[in-house]
Design goal:
This protein has 321 residues and is mainly alpha-helical. It has a single domain, classed as Cytochrome p450 (Orthogonal Bundle), CATH 1.10.630. The chain has 11 helices and 8 strands. The radius of gyration is 22 Å and the shape is globular. Bound molecules: protoporphyrin IX containing FE.
Length: 321
């Protein structure tokens, strides 16, 4: 929960202009709701609902919690928007909501521009949820890989000690001097494969792709798992191997098949922010702590599959370095 809250605070500052304390029970409950709802959305009950909504609407089951879950998050956002409306100073926007409110005012005569309160609510929801869940889940994978592969963790820490030391915090400027750590973070994203099926999209017009015709309104899934584990692209696709991102001299190398953020027009708009967060959180944690399995517990890479592919809850020991 601490990592989830810390990560969420980054996007909360940008969107709501505020962070939430680790002791804020209401916010902790909201994070749990987001977590559970995203899990349920990828489950079998949600699948049944999508196939037969006219029947499933009346059938009891966990799929009903998906609706109440999002209602809870939307209510939270609506309250924040109302608060912003009360004290928004158009000459000095504080955050995403203020900027959007200014655009609503600017475009009030043109309804086609799309700047209205409903869109503000759903754009805020997208940024808040996407910015919270994905980066947290990637960090859970990162720490899980570190307790499964302590020798890799030791190499990251050795690089950290040489480049950053222990008296200051790591910064993005250190990133280029830390190829091994960068390779480990990239390999975490590849093997963590947190959005294997990508986000569902729909063809807006008849389209030709690779000789196939995709009629208008067809739902399209550009699966990311197929590239992240492509046997023609990766030397050891099913093994956690930071060398995938290192050349002969140990320098960082980019790979064409590294597409956890997808690509094209709908590529993740949070890619750059997420990359910064992953580097800063991961390095700050490994600078201060060594992570290991609790005594008597066998390390495992068990996962659960909802809308995201995430590790099953696990315990770990954090020993101060
Ligand atoms: C490790 C972290 C992240 C991963 C792996 C990730 C991955 C993705 C992927 C695969 C998509 C779908 C792209 C497509 O449809 O082709 C997406 C969409 C999106 N992401 Fe991220 N994301 C991450 C972090 C973030 C962050 C921090 C934000 C917040 C700024 C964010 C905001 C969004 C939004 C708003 C969309 C929907 C964009 C649209 O509908 O056009 N993501 N992300």
């Amino acid at each position: 929960m601490l990592i989830n809250n810390a990560v969420s605070n980054v996007i909360c500052c940008l969107v709501f202009g505020d962070r939430f304390e680790y002791s804020d029970d209401q916010f902790q409950t909201l994070l749990k709701t987001i977590n559970e709802t995203i899990y349920l959305e990828g489950g079998v009950w949600a699948g049944k609902y999508n196939m037969m909504p006219w029947v499933m609407r009346w059938v009891p089951g966990p799929h009903r919690r998906i609706f109440s879950g999002w209602e809870e998050v939307i209510s939270f956002i609506k309250i924040r928007i109302q608060e912003h409306k009360k004290d928004n100073d158009t000459s000095s926007p504080r955050d995403f909501i203020d900027c959007f409110l200014n655009e609503i005012e600017k475009w009030e005569d043109d309804t086609r521009a799309g700047f209205n309160l409903e869109n503000l609510c759903f754009c805020t929801l997208d940024l808040f949820v996407a910015g919270t869940e994905t980066t947290s889940t990637t960090l859970y994978w990162g720490l899980l890989f570190m307790i499964n592969y302590p020798e890799i963790q030791a190499k990251v820490q050795a690089e950290m000690d040489a480049v950053v030391g222990s008296s200051r915090q790591p910064s993005m400027e250190d990133s280029d001097s830390m190829p091994y750590t960068n390779a480990v973070i990239h390999e975490t994203q590849r093997m963590g494969n947190i959005i294997p099926l990508n986000v569902f999209r729909m063809a807006t017009k008849d389209t030709e792709v690779g000789g196939y015709t995709i009629p208008k309104n067809t739902i399209v899934l550009g699966t990311l798992q197929s590239v992240l584990f492509d046997e023609s692209q990766w030397e050891t696709p099913h093994t956690f191997n930071p060398a995938h991102f290192l050349d002969q001299e140990g320098k960082f190398r980019k790979r064409d098949a590294f597409l956890p953020f997808s690509l094209g027009k709908r590529v993740c708009p949070g890619e750059q922010l997420a990359k910064m967060e992953l580097f800063l959180f991961f390095t700050s944690l490994l600078q201060r702590f060594t992570f290991s399995c609790p005594p008597g517990v066998e390390p495992s890479l068990d996962f659960k599959m909802g809308s995201t592919h995430s590790p099953k809850p696990y315990q770990l020991c954090a020993t101060l370095r």
